[in-house]
Amino acid sequence: MTHAQALIEKIEKPHLKSKLPTLRIGDTVDVHTRIIEGDKERTQIYNGVVIAVRGRGINVNFTVRRIVGKEGVERTFMLHSPNVLDVVSRRQGKARRAKLYYLRDRLGKARRLKEVRTGRSRGGAEGGSTREAEPELVGSP
Fold it and tell me: Angle 49-31-116 (CA atoms, 0-180°, nearest 5)?
């Protein structure tokens, strides 16, 4: 690492968030953002599918896409921004690409990603093992 890179990392370090959300491509997330209107402040929740994550260090940003009134809307958020209060993952989608830009051309049910579900096996109390089940791919409801 060069001296300039070390100096940049040293300057950026105090501004990085300590608790980062687990953010993966294809996840359906709720992004809690701080909105300041005049002297009032409120929290707005933007939900959609993560279609891209790029950057490193303090410059990490992610793009979330959702459909509003039959029109696709994409919004890019800086992960370490003080205006991004929280990112909550609602559903994990299976993605085999780093960028899901092809979802822009899809309509209706073709826009959905298969869901990756993790959890216990369905044995219940009757002799089922207590070991965690392997992740299972389940089609969208």
Answer: 40
pTM of the model: 0.75
Q: What is the DSSP string of the chain?
A: --HHHHHHHHHHGGGS-SS-----TT-EEEEEEEEEETTEEEEEEEEEEEEEEE--GGG-EEEEEEEETTEEEEEEEETT-TTEEEEEEEE-B--SSS--GGGGG--GGGG---EEE--B-TTTTSS---SBPPPEEE---
Q: Are 27 and 103 in contact (CB under 8 A)?
A: no
- The pLDDT assigned to 128 comes to 47
One-letter-per-residue 3-state SS of 115-138:
EEECCECCCCCCCCCCCECCCEEE
How far is residue 127's CA from residue 71's CA, in Å, rounded to a whole number? Answer: 50
What whole-number distance in Å separates Cα of residue 134 and Cα of residue 19? 27
Q: Which residues contact 89 (CB under 8 A, 6 or more apart)?
A: 21, 22, 23, 24, 27, 28, 29
71-127 confidence digits (pLDDT tens): 889 999 999 999 999 999 998 988 898 999 998 888 877 877 888 887 755 555 554
